[in-house]
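Title: Comparing notes on inverse folding

I've been comparing how different people in this forum approach sequence design from structure. To keep things fair, I'm posting one structure and asking everyone to reply with a full sequence. Here's the target:
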């Protein structure tokens, strides 16, 4: 039932990396986890070893209101993955207007997935504002904004702080309480990176769930189509990711044992 959304005002900061590796860590902690890729780049699946040639996903069937269960992949990690699916520019534009007219196209199947109280759903979104983020934020238990430890991110903190990142006026006020932040690619050897991380940490207090260091194993894991805990469990990044997962876990309601089976348990 709980939905955690990974988002960021800025692209290329590590949203997808964070979403998949936190999903993996939470699965290892005993959760049943489904990750959904809402980004038309359709790359999330690669982290779980789904072949590049396999481009199927939920998006192509969306206008027909399909049962998404048919497109869910069981992966060796134990995490279930619902890929976005490949879509060309004409399809993407058509879909964007369809969603503007009828957000239920996306909201209805999502609600049906979230009706399973024992399932943790993690959503990855495209950078910046998107239909997906707009729709997911009100349904989410937590929106995790991923930021880099640099000057641009420090400048974006006020938007995170008051919820403006997810809306304006009352909407912003409503969502501000659900926003958490993770800093990514922190370089302990860089004065600027350290200073930016300290500034953000001081400002956000407990809303900062943690920080992940810049570590080549993270990029190597993606190149190998594996997860960080698989290829380098003793690395600094793996330790940081486990720590962030603990922070996320601590902020979520506990799952009773009786709810450990259900949707997607096949
Ligand atoms: N902590 C890290 N250390 C080293 N490299 C990292 C780290 N986090 C992410 N990367 C690398 O940075 C690149 C971008 O990461 P990712 O694709 O997760 O970002 P994103 O925010 O999802 O991007 P987009 O906005 O395009 O969706 C990838 O090559 C990834 O391997
Ligand atoms: Mg991404």
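Reply #1:
Here's my take.
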């Amino acid at each position: 039932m709980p939905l955690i959304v990974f988002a960021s005002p800025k692209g290329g900061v590590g949203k997808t990396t964070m979403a998949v590796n936190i999903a993996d860590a939470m699965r290892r902690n005993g959760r049943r986890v489904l990750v959904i890729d809402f980004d038309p780049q359709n790359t999330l699946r690669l982290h779980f070893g789904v072949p590049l040639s396999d481009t199927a996903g939920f998006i192509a069937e969306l206008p027909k209101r399909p049962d998404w269960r048919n497109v869910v992949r069981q992966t060796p990690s134990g995490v279930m993955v619902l890929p976005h699916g490949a879509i060309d520019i004409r399809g993407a534009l058509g879909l964007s207007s369809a969603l503007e007219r009828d957000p239920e196209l996306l909201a209805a199947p999502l609600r049906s997935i979230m009706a399973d109280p024992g399932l943790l759903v993690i959503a990855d979104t495209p950078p910046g504002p998107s239909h997906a983020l707009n729709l997911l934020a009100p349904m989410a238990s937590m929106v995790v904004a991923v930021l880099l430890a640099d000057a641009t991110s420090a400048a974006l903190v006020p938007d995170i702080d008051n919820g403006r990142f997810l809306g304006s006026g009352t909407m912003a006020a409503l969502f501000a309480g659900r926003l958490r932040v993770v800093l990514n690619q922190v370089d302990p050897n860089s004065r600027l990176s350290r200073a930016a991380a300290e500034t953000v940490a001081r400002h956000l207090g407990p809303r900062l769930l943690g920080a992940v260091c810049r570590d080549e194993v993270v990029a190597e894991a993606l190149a190998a189509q594996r997860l960080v805990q698989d290829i380098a469990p003793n690395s600094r990044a793996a330790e940081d990711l486990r720590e962030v997962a603990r922070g996320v876990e601590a902020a979520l309601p506990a799952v009773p044992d009786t709810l450990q089976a259900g949707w997607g348990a096949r």
